[in-house]
Amino acid sequence: MATTKTLRYAQVACACVWCLFSAGIVFGFAALKPILISEGVYHELCDPKDGDGLLCTAQDLKLNFIFALSATVTNIMALPVGKILDMYGPRVSGIIGSGLLFLACGNFISAKHLASIWDPYLVGYTLLAIAGPFVFISCFQLANSFPQKSGTILALLTGSFDSSSALFLIYRLLYQNWYPNLHVSRFFTLYLIVPLFILACQLTIMPHSSYKTVNHIAKIAVEGLDENGRLIEGDTGSGIIPDEQERQSLIAIENEEDTLPDTSTRPQRRKSVLETYVEDKLQKKSGGIFGVLHGKSASEQIKSPWFYLMLLFALVAMLRINYFIATVRTQEEYLLNDAALALKLNSIFDMLLPLGGVVSIPFIGLLLDHTDTLSTLTILFTTSIAIGIFGLIPNSFTWNLIGIVLLVVYRPFYYTVVSDYSSKVFGFDTFGTVYGLLSCICGIFNMSQNLLDKWTHTTFDMNPFPINLMLVILTLFFSLTLTFYIRSQILRKPKNGRALPPNYQTI
């Protein structure tokens, strides 16, 4: 037993290490971009009169397109990776991710030789983006390797994902200050250690089959109960039912029901007493939102305003986040009218982005635990609008810095709240499909950031104000629309809500 426990600790540790070095590194593009410019990537697109080392419009647009495509692909892959994980298990998913990282490295290492065949930088960075979800999502099932610590493990994995964008920041610091000969090809030669490490772990210590599916992990994270609505092994239930007498009474009823004839042949399983109790508490705690579409098919849920109104907000929110990551330097140069201050803000952003998730995760957890869903969404919407407004203020280093600090905290907050909303509104049976579809659609729409970037360079002569103002207005409109819809649905519900009876059954 001790060996098994040690092995599970090793599995979690290895997963955190490779997530730190591969899961979300594409979001460190702002730090990698200066190196690509210095290396002359796409400089052949510039007019010879521009001179060496100077960034031209065509080169800037092409470099930003790399990130736009990679951010799109990363989100699109959330849906197929979840399906592959459920069908073939985490080991196959991890090995696929490792193979994609190998191919990505090969493109960067052999860029000069491959340039005549295809665009090695575009292909290589896109492969990094595809690999990320394979190596990251396949780790979610480890949250149940220690069921009572599932929340901590999920936080560690998410923190590793958020921090992974720091890899290119470290590379840029090494390149600019100590090792100017550490060219892109040499860096990715060294980076081959990462896919080798992942492959070695998958073939040796990692589990072949999932401890739990993504849907089950979502249920554990929200309810504290396993997929059958029972207490997790070794859990006394004190975390979800504080009152000792009430807890013992419910557990006693639960144990009595275990002696009843098996009903597993029914179309849907009978809800446990604990599950009924917990879901009623969550329904009240969430302000009436929890369970609103539970039990409905995925197609019915997708057609509901609960889905498409959140989708509209998410489309703009994700677009704004990734558009800023790709264009932070050029936006700040125009707003501050000072290249040195813009570079300083860019450097601060590069450092804060990987720290944002790590620092904010505990506070996000506290907020979700102690605030109803509509209030949490209101905070999310308000923060999103505030960030947009700060990005409109010219000639102010302080206000732009505040906007950047808010953005790096807002990014993990946004992803966590949308995931939490999806699990509470749509339920756990369809969570993977509905949330995966939402991420996938957002990813496809994210390609429009390339069009926004082109308009900024050409139509608006590098002025980011018109695009940012449009995004703020859309954010405000969709935020208010979703808020009013949720509020109207809550007001329509009976005010004298009560707990469902212990013998409640899902039909």
From TrEMBL:
Ribonucleoprotein is among the record's keywords: no
Name assigned to this protein: Fmp42p
Keyword Membrane (UniProt): yes
Pfam families for this protein: MFS_1 (PF07690)
Transmembrane segments: 12-32, 65-85, 92-110, 122-142, 154-175, 187-205, 306-325, 345-367, 374-393, 399-418, 425-447, 467-486
Membrane topology (UniProt): Multi-pass membrane protein
Gene name, Swiss-Prot/TrEMBL: FMP42
Xref: PANTHER family: PROTEIN FMP42
GO molecular function, one term: transmembrane transporter activity
Major place of residence: membrane
Keywords (A to Z) from UniProt: Membrane, Transmembrane, Transmembrane helix, Transport
Locations listed in the record: Membrane
Family membership: Belongs to the SLC43A transporter (TC 2.A.1.44) family.
Coiled-coil features, chain-numbered ranges: none
An annotated GO cellular component: fungal-type vacuole membrane
